[in-house]
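pls ignore typos typing on phone
1-O-phosphono-alpha-D-glucopyranose + seq
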Amino acid sequence: MSKRVRTAVFPVAGLGTRFLPATKAMPKEMLTVVDRPLIQYAVDEAREAGIEHFVFVTGRNKGVIEDHFDRQFELEATLESRGKTKALEELQKDLPSAGRTSFTRQQEPLGLGHAVWCARDIVGDQPFALLLPDMIFQAKPGVLKQMMDAYEERAGNIVGVEECAWEDVSSYGVVVRGDGPDEGFVINGMVEKPKREEAPSNLFISGRYILQPEIFALLAEQTRGAGGEIQLTDAMQSLMGQQPFTGVKYRGKVYDCGSKLGFLTANVVFALDRPDIRPGFIEELRKLDLEDKL
Ligand code: G1P
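k done
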């Protein structure tokens, strides 16, 4: 049986330059889709998948994320005195239990691989999940839960993938698909941000991973790859020589909130999916006479 995955790592050190000026003083992970910050979606997905310990790799100007996962006594007292019990319960439900969060800093922006490596001492010698909070999903069950189900049956490392348009492959890591069904197939290789004509597939790595701790030693030695950064994909490719990698083409759809278009689309889609917002939102959209404007 595979060793249980209890810990998840969330790299949240990125500068968010694509969202300036919104992210000048505010972490991009706190941008909201409807009324929840991006990071909350990733934490919710991890909890649904059974994660118990949440490790955030932060950077300068990211203190608000730590505050977000703490209690806010003044706010709670005010909600209570005003009888807003539902809002209060919701806030408390979103919090990980006391002592179940850790924060460490990536001191320099050296890439995703380096950010993950910064979590090595906290994670220790155990498998862990990795969730990139820019990427949020419409999926039931959640994407990490679907990957955990695949992990239960196989040893090694699991990577979530989805098809993208061929013109987008150069923005992502993509995998070489081997034998097996969508729920769990052999990955024979992967490459970070390939040119369209060199991409081995359009199955892209959409920001959800289950990794074995041996990745840390490889990350420690990893030289700079695409974009001059220490790339997780390169270290995974090296680990593939020692351990199996399984791809899960999950049921669901990703919204890349690291891009403005993905972020705006996610806001529309997630709003339409919320029973409390949908009817009013549809009415407002109708009033816009979109047909004329598009
Ligand atoms: C990172 C990974 C890439 C993955 C992507 C998903 O790239 O390196 O393999 O496809 O996240 O968002 P980044 O977005 O940091 O350039």
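The first helix runs from residue 38 to 48. Residues 48 and 242 are 30 Å apart (CA to CA). more later
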